[in-house]
Each structure stands twice: as structure tokens, then as C-alpha cells.
Write a structure and sequence with these properties.
Elements lengths: L1 E4 L2 E2 L10 H14 L3 E7 L2 E2 L4 H7 L8 E7 L1 H31 L3 H25 L10 H26 L3 H17 L1 H17 L2
Helix pairs in contact: 3-4, 3-6, 3-7, 5-6, 5-7
Length: 209
């Protein structure tokens, strides 16, 4: 079985009686010890699924497989990519607040509630990305002021979300629309400069590598 890292084949070939999972475990240890992170695993051209099929494929002998491809990233570059993705999603979320609010005001409650559920799922993704990317253990101390601002923003967001959930549970869709269009929209828009500052804070660290 051939092994590729970021598209480049390494000298090692897995040809003994090991399973794919055993080889992958050894590779992960080496990659993690070098300070890198595995972001994607592809076996014979197919990404490994997060299901029972993953366990089944990992238990296969290496002799039954042709190629194992790993995509790896250094934590700093992964943090910056996460921030980039979060910034794109923040812009889309801000644009969606008024259309969803309008649906509630017009009485299109079924569609509006479906859209709101998707909106809140995407909001959780942004928050998770911001949380991951602004954590500040060494050597990421440059992001700590940004994290302080993130925590302040999160503290302001929680009461807004609490009011929104209570209004939705009580069927007060005008109140839901108000929370979406005004308070929540303003808070989300305030994240754009926060994200830009977070990305800029990582640039000197990336250039120094």
C-alpha cells in the first residue's frame, strides 16, 4: 500500500500483515509529534466515513488496499483557515437575518422555523470555529486579546439567544423577528472586524515559520 502525505509519496510502503488502522495509528503519532494535524484521510480514493464503514475499512489488511492519502496541516495554518471559513459564514448569516425575520412577520411560520433552525446550526459552527481558533496556549499568545473580545461578544449574545428561544417556544413570532433583525444581526456583524483582527494576529506567527 502506497502512502501519500499532502500529495507526495513517502518512502515507506505498508506491505506486511498490519491492518490499515494500525498503519494509520503509527502515522498519526509521527505527524502529531511533529506538531501537525491530520485533516483528511482518503483510502483508495474514498474519504473514510464517520460510521461503522470506517471501522470496517480500517480493519482491512494493507495488502487489500492500494493507497492511503493523508492531508496534514500545521496548527497555525489550520487556525487561519478556520477563521477564513468563519468569516465567510458570518457574512452569510448577517444577510439571512432580515429575510428570515420577514418570513416570521408575514406569517410563513413553517418555512421561517426551518430556516431559523438551519441559521442557528450555522451560528454554532461559527462559534465553534472562533473558540478553536482564538484559544491562546503558547505559541498562540498573540490571539489572546482577540479571545477576550470574543468572550465579551459571547456574553452579549447569550441573552439575545435566550430571548429568541423563549419567544419561539411561546409562539411570539414578532418578538422572534425583532431579535433576529436587530439585536442578533448587530451582534453577528460585530464579529467581522473581530475575525479580521484574529487573522491578522496569526500572520506574523505564520511568516516566522
Amino acid at each position: 500500500m502506497r502512502i501519500l502525505l499532502n500529495g507526495l509519496e513517502i518512502a515507506r510502503r505498508a506491505e506486511d500483515d498490519q491492518t490499515v488502522g494500525e498503519v494509520l495509528s503509527e502515522l498519526r503519532q509521527q505527524i502529531n509529534s511533529a506538531g501537525n494535524i491530520v485533516t483528511q484521510i482518503v483510502l483508495d480514493g474514498h474519504p473514510l466515513p464517520d460510521s461503522w464503514q470506517r471501522r470496517q475499512r480500517l480493519s482491512a489488511p494493507v495488502s487489500a488496499c492500494r493507497m492511503l492519502e493523508l492531508t496534514i496541516q500545521e496548527p497555525l495554518s489550520l487556525k487561519r483557515q478556520t477563521l477564513h471559513d468563519a468569516a465567510e459564514l458570518v457574512g452569510k448569516l448577517a444577510e439571512r437575518t432580515k429575510p428570515i425575520s420577514r418570513m416570521f412577520r408575514l406569517g410563513d411560520e413553517v418555512t421561517a422555523n426551518t430556516e431559523l433552525a438551519e441559521f442557528l446550526d450555522d451560528l454554532k459552527l461559527v462559534l465553534a470555529g472562533l473558540d478553536h481558533s482564538t484559544r491562546s496556549p503558547e505559541p498562540f499568545a498573540a490571539t489572546s486579546p482577540v479571545r477576550d473580545r470574543l468572550l465579551e461578544s459571547a456574553n452579549r449574545l447569550l441573552p439575545t439567544l435566550d430571548r429568541l428561544y423563549k419567544a419561539q417556544a411561546g409562539g411570539d413570532y414578532i418578538a422572534v423577528a425583532d431579535e433576529l433583525e436587530y439585536d442578533l444581526c448587530d451582534e453577528i456583524e460585530s464579529w467581522e472586524p473581530l475575525l479580521n483582527d484574529a487573522r491578522r494576529s496569526l500572520d506574523p506567527l505564520l511568516q516566522a515559520q
